[in-house]
């Protein structure tokens, strides 16, 4: 971006900061009270217990079902990109490799949960965000800041949890949609949801298929398809106990660039059963057994590989309610297993590891002061013991403003690739886990129809895992990340506004260089308007430049994109939607690759470009 672009970002951020401060708290009307519920939502990820956003003592963003319906995204990364503290890089659109950075930490230093079940690749340590079908979910909670004391390894930058729908009381509710558009894209989905006699159910299926777009200039289209299914059931027994199950599976293929035809066949799957019972009037106990799978079978001109990683987990969680105070404690056992994973016919030296953890958290309310204190101990077969903790303090300045301060530690576990990758000199079984500590100060204003949240933080990471001169992973680097985030929202007279500005300074302390592929400034604005049977909306997302490499020699320019959307409720239960992504047809890249010249033995860099303007039309039935 140019100096003018940076100035525009800064002025817009300043305007966002000033706008909420100028708002006067007005007496509640019915509309405003309804808006307050949406603008101060209940979240569970921040503290393992339900808390409103202002009570969570956390930096949290909630993307609810109405927002997902309005934006009608083709991928989860579309709604994550540009949210406060979140940066997304991709190697093209439509199922191409994507990384999600939270507060400047790596994609394998944050956690993805689906209904409380962690999903990731044990070999890379990162989630395959590009294969998540947004039509399987109704809500997302983005919690920024360390959560190692609650979720264990890798919750350094934060946690993103996706929630699937569950049935509600009343008649069965069917839904279906059909749509298509640019790049020969077709989308189909259907679901049935309801509850009767203490049993809640939700069944869903979805299909996405596209010829895709080129991922490099003058390249061929790279296709993608994804078929997903979901079953969620629960039953409430006499006495208040509840049992339930979840099964979510996505399967498909994606073409990628590898100097010739190349394709990944993938499976993403989570499954769980649980039982929850009230032991006493104040003590609730829950046991969950789950399995998560990340499978990828790659075929390219020069190599083939198969990775089938599984994580099996048994968790016992207890909640004690003691008046205004609450205590959460429990234990967790998990096992990572590579299964039949192979790469070029070579086997990993170790193909499984287990982890045993105990944790406890106190949520103490001494109005106007609230305290959250948590501690967790992990004992891992591969890298030993880790102790993490956090302390958060909140103080109600008045009826509308809450100030907070927190300190937390976390760690990132070495991955199977870093420890045991089966090529000579490419792994290191003696690696230690990365460790981090974070300080955070924030203040939130919560009004009848508006809110704003401002936070500043600093994270220091020790024993950072990086590649040495021979491309072997070693514990050598240290990183310091400091930044600030401003988010705001409003729901008033048919208008819905969401805004987020992020400043991040992720630096390698040894070299002073910016960490690779992280932008330092981003701004996102979402504006929607209800007009009777019609709705109109737009999103603007802008980021400054980033460097593709740790040496900061490969600079990727900043960019700004505009998306438009419209909806029409043309009959009872029926609606149509139109979305136009990248309205101005901007060519931009957030990652760079390279080809190998067999004559000069030099690397020839190229940009992974994102798709240009794309339009999609869909028809929907159901509430």
TrEMBL record:
Cleaved signal peptide residues: 1-25
A single GO cellular-component term on record: cell outer membrane
Residue ranges occupied by any TonB-dependent receptor-like beta-barrel domain in the UniProt entry: 194-583
Residue intervals of the TonB-dependent receptor plug domain: 55-159
Highest taxon of the lineage: Bacteria
Coiled-coil regions, chain positions: none
CDD domains reported in the protein's UniProt record: ligand_gated_channel (cd01347)
Membrane topology according to the record: Multi-pass membrane protein
Record's protein name: Vitamin B12 transporter BtuB
Keyword Ion transport appears in the UniProt entry: yes
Recorded name of the encoding gene: btuB
Record-linked SUPFAM superfamilies: Porins
Subcellular locations according to the entry: Cell outer membrane
GO BP of this protein: cobalamin transport; monoatomic ion transport
Family: Belongs to the TonB-dependent receptor family.
Pfam families, per the entry: Plug, TonB_dep_Rec_b-barrel
Keywords from the UniProt entry: Cell outer membrane, Ion transport, Membrane, Signal, TonB box, Transmembrane, Transmembrane beta strand, Transport
């Amino acid at each position: 971006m140019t100096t003018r672009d940076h100035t525009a970002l800064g002025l817009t951020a300043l305007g966002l900061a000033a706008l909420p401060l100028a708002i006067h708290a007005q007496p509640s009307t019915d509309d405003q009270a309804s808006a307050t519920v949406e603008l101060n939502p209940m979240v569970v990820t921040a503290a393992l217990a339900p808390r409103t956003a202002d009570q969570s003592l956390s930096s949290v963003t909630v993307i609810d079902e109405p927002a997902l319906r309005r934006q009608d995204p083709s991928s989860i990364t579309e709604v994550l990109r540009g949210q406060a503290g979140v940066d997304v890089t991709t190697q093209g659109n439509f199922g191409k490799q994507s990384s999600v950075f939270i507060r400047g930490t790596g994609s394998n230093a944050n956690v993805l949960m689906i209904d409380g079940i962690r999903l990731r690749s044990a070999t890379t340590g990162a989630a395959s965000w590009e294969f998540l079908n947004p039509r399987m979910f109704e809500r997302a909670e983005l919690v920024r800041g360390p959560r190692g004391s609650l979720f264990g390894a890798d919750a350094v930058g934060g946690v993103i949890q996706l929630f699937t729908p569950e049935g509600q009381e009343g008649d069965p509710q069917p839904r279906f949609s059909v749509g298509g558009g640019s790049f020969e894209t077709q989308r189909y989905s259907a679901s049935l949801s309801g509850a009767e006699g203490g049993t809640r159910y939700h069944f869903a299926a979805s299909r996405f298929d596209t010829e895709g777009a080129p991922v490099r200039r003058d390249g061929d289209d790279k296709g993608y398809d994804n078929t997903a299914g979901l079953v969620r059931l629960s039953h409430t027994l006499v006495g208040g106990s509840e049992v339930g199950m979840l099964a979510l599976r996505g399967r498909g293929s994606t073409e990628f660039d590898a100097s010739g035809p190349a394709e990944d066949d993938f499976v993403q799957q989570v499954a769980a059963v649980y039982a929850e019972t009230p032991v006493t009037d104040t003590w609730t106990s829950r046991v969950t057994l789950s399995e998560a799978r990340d499978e990828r079978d790659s075929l390219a001109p020069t190599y083939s590989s198969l990775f089938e990683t599984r994580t099996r987990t048994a968790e016992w969680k207890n909640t004690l309610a003691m008046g205004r105070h609450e205590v959460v404690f429990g234990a967790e056992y998990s096992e990572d297993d590579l299964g039949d994973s192979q790469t070029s016919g070579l086997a990993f030296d170790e193909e499984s590891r287990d982890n045993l953890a105990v944790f406890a958290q106190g949520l103490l309310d001494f109005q106007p002061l609230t305290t959250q204190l948590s501690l967790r101990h992990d004992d891992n077969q591969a890298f030993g013991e880790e102790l993490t903790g956090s302390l958060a303090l909140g103080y109600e300045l008045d009826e509308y403003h809450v100030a907070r301060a927190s300190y937390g530690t976390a760690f990132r576990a070495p991955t199977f690739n870093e420890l045991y990758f089966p090529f000579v000199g490419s792994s290191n079984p003696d690696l230690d886990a990365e460790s981090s500590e974070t300080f955070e100060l924030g203040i939130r204003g919560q009004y009848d129809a508006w809110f704003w949240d401002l936070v500043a933080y600093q994270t220091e990471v020790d024993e950072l895992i990086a590649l040495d001169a021979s491309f072997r992973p070693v514990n050598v680097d240290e990183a310091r990340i400091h930044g600030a985030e401003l988010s705001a929202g409003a729901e008033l007279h048919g208008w819905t506004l969401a805004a987020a500005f992020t400043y991040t300074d992720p630096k390698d302390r040894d070299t002073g260089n910016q960490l690779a592929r992280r932008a330092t400034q981003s701004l996102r604005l979402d504006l929607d308007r209800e007009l009777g049977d019609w709705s109109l909306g737009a999103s603007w997302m802008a980021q400054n430049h980033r460097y593709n490499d740790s040496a900061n020699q490969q600079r990727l320019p900043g960019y700004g994109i505009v998306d438009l959307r419209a909806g029409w409720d043309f009959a009872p239960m029926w609606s149509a939607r139109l979305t136009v992504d990248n309205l101005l047809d901007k060519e931009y890249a957030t990652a760079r690759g390279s080809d190998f010249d067999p004559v000069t033995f030099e690397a020839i860099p190229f940009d992974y470009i994102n798709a240009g303007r794309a339009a999609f039309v869909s028809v929907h039935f159901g509430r």
